[in-house]
Amino acid sequence: MVTDDFLQKIAELQKRLDGQLKNYPFPQQPEYLYDPLRYVLAGNAKRLRPVLLTLTGQAFGVDEDDLRHAALAVELLHNFTLVHDDIMDDDLLRHGQPTVQNKWDNATAILAGDGLFIEAHRAISRVRNNTQRVGAVFNDGALAVCVGQAYDKEYEENQTITLNDYLHMTEKKTGAMLSLCVEIPALLANQDEGVCSQLRKFGYDIGKGFQIQDDILEIFSDADEMGKSLGSDVIAQKQTALTLMARKMAQEQWSEFCQRSEGQPIDEKLTGMRTFFKDSGVYAETTAMAEEYFNNAVSDLVVIPDPGREELVAFTNFIKNRNY
Amino acid sequence: MVTDDFLQKIAELQKRLDGQLKNYPFPQQPEYLYDPLRYVLAGNAKRLRPVLLTLTGQAFGVDEDDLRHAALAVELLHNFTLVHDDIMDDDLLRHGQPTVQNKWDNATAILAGDGLFIEAHRAISRVRNNTQRVGAVFNDGALAVCVGQAYDKEYEENQTITLNDYLHMTEKKTGAMLSLCVEIPALLANQDEGVCSQLRKFGYDIGKGFQIQDDILEIFSDADEMGKSLGSDVIAQKQTALTLMARKMAQEQWSEFCQRSEGQPIDEKLTGMRTFFKDSGVYAETTAMAEEYFNNAVSDLVVIPDPGREELVAFTNFIKNRNY
Question: Do the Cβ atoms of A94 and A26 come closer than 8 Å?
């Protein structure tokens, strides 16, 4: 159940974190480095990762200062990966505004990403409890995201990858960052490896649920709410949970569809794809798969003490129920 | 004095470090991430930074394992900055081989740089003494390098910058990394802030000497030995120690020379520039400035105990005497 009280708590947390990020105390100079950092953090983002980290930390009774530093660190880290991924993927919009390399250029965006990553390290190094272990887990999480991005790039040109390959890639690219959001507060609360490993699994599960759902929303939701151009996966001929499920469930018909729709205008192709996914059962099966990962994520939360656990269950449902 | 014994010691150190870097235990997969990392470290590099770090650590009697981790970390960090700078500056060659974005593409090179930076953090986190402080100084050094790179990019389009601006930029872009190479071993040997700050100054001084000399060699040395295309600063119309000194010492004549040589073939322009710098006294004055920074660097070494100090003096002279 996602109660109104909980939604209000989330909204307040988002607002507070957003304010801290929008007023992050970067130096004024050099503007070449810091203007893009300010620009990136001024974007209209949902701050889901630091919210998750904060809720988990509160459940474990973590010191407030440590929690604030860690929350800012994961959002900076997340933004580092977005800025560099947007260059790598030639994306022009992010959160409804031009990406850094679109507004400035590649060089500026490369350095902005580097700067965000370094600032993320500075923020995480400010936590006082278990500092060394937290720093190591943080850096390893960053590596996992890069490994995931590498697989994603490898798969772009490989038409033989399977749904399992995709899920492995997603565990790294999306799951590892969400794992950080629950493992780091656990480490700040001196939890043992058993708890940490269960929470890492939570991150992988909610990450996979989230990404599969993202692929679905990319095709089926309203463009305005996504804050980016809908159908960009289609334009880029990206392999998503839906296309890989289609290849798995209905290889022949999917292959026929792809041949038939090649060269069609993007709107027409998108409409055809929607119909294909619905009629073939691909949409239903993919949605069920996302749901299963979200359910697993809820089960993983058993290691979190009440009453905080209830809030994290509500957070998981909040993510699951999003429609953009 | 740079004795043959010392040169042999340096050569052995370079060889050992080079071997460790060329056999760095990266995973095989994903190749998209790790192939470029192996490629970068297989390059024909001089390993000056880890050599400096190792000599300093030996002077302070630092634990060998700690020293090895730190030496590898600074070389990984240095290579991270090279890979990203080469994209930002559109450089095609590095150490005589194609740069990563030239051999692969921008996306691959961005991720390779990120991977090197993360691996650098992993390496530095393996030191056992003073781990937290060492990690913080390491990350702050990385930030200084990015700040320096940002100023460098800002200055590209600013024809009013002075020699002082250039020296400030160089202190960050080149000096900060060399400061790390002496401050980190000092921290590993539990030296106090007085020693550390003096050693940071050493890094800035040798860094400025090194960069000014680099600008001179770019115009006056043999192309083959530089391992990159000579005159690339001229082609890019880069502001260097020489051009800024020319503007300072002989503004009018320099401005005339620039107008006169505009549009000339690059060989002709380079020859003309050499003559101009020699005849106007710019070459002599710039060389004297580099020499002064190297002399200051030698003076800074007073905080290092003998007999190690003598080796670091020899190292400084070894850098100063390089001709490529």
Answer: no
Residues of B with CB below 8 A from A151's CB? Answer: 30, 32
How distant, in Å, are the alpha carbons of A193, A194, A298, A300, B92 from that of A198?
8, 6, 11, 6, 47
CA distance B90 to B112: 16
Comparing CA positions, the residue from A26, A15, A46 lying closest to residue A122 is: A26
Tell me the CA distances in angstroms from B66 to A308, B22, B57, B128, one per residue in order: 41, 19, 9, 6
How far is B116 from B81, CA to CA, in rounded Å?
A: 9
d(CA B175, CA B163): 16
Contacts of A226 (CB under 8 A, 6+ apart): A217, A218, A324
**Closest-CA residue of chain A to B86:** A107
List the beta strands (DSSP E) in B34-190: 93-94, 97-98
CATH homologous superfamily, domain B4-320: Farnesyl Diphosphate Synthase (1.10.600.10)
Rounded Cα–Cα distance for residues A100 and A161 (Å)? 31
Contact B153 A32 (CB under 8 A): yes
CA distance A79 to A105: 17
Closest CA relative to residue B230, chosen from B219, B214, B242: B219
The encoded tokens of residue B142 equal 């990385």
- Is residue A100 helix, strand or coil? helix
Query: B127 to chain A, minimum CA–CA distance in Å?
Result: 11
The answer, for B43 touching chain A at a CB cutoff of 8 Å, is: no
Query: What are the tokens at B253?
Result: 């004549």
Instruction: Please write the tens of the pLDDT for every residue from A56-112.
Output: 999 999 999 999 999 999 999 999 999 999 999 999 999 889 999 999 999 999 999
Q: Distance from B216 to chain A by nearest Cα, in Å? A: 26
Give the pLDDT means over successive 10-residue stretches in chain B (324 positions). 90 98 97 98 95 98 98 98 96 94 98 98 97 96 98 91 97 98 98 98 98 94 56 75 96 94 89 96 98 98 94 96 79
The three-state DSSP-derived secondary structure of A171-198 is HHHHHHHHHHHHHHHHHHCCCCHHHHHH
Give the best residue of B146, B170, B173, B180 to mutate against chain A (max A CB count within 10 A): B146
Of A107, A121, A140, the CB nearest to B153: A107
Which residue in chain B is spatially nearest to A113 when comparing CA positions?
B114
Three-class SS of residue A98? strand
Count residue pairs from A and B with Cβ separation < 8 A: 108
The rounded distance, in Å, linking the Cα atoms of B97 and A267 is 46
- Name the DSSP letter for residue A305: P
Whether residue A125 and residue B135 make contact (CB cut-off 8 A), yes or no, is yes
- Asked if B205 contacts B296 with a C-beta cutoff of 8 angstroms, the reply is yes
Q: How far is A78 from chain B (nearest CA, A)?
A: 13
> How is residue B171 annotated by DSSP?
I
Domains of chain B by residue range:
4-320
Whether the pTM exceeds 0.90: the reply is yes
CA–CA–CA angle B63, B66, B72 (5° rounding): 135
In this complex, do B143 and A151 lie within 8 Å of one another by their Cβ atoms? no
Q: Give the nearest chain A residue to B35 (CA atoms).
A: A150
Residue B117: both structure tokens together? 């930076």
- Look at residue B34 and give its three-state secondary structure: helix
pLDDT 10s digits, B204-224: 999 999 999 999 999 998 655
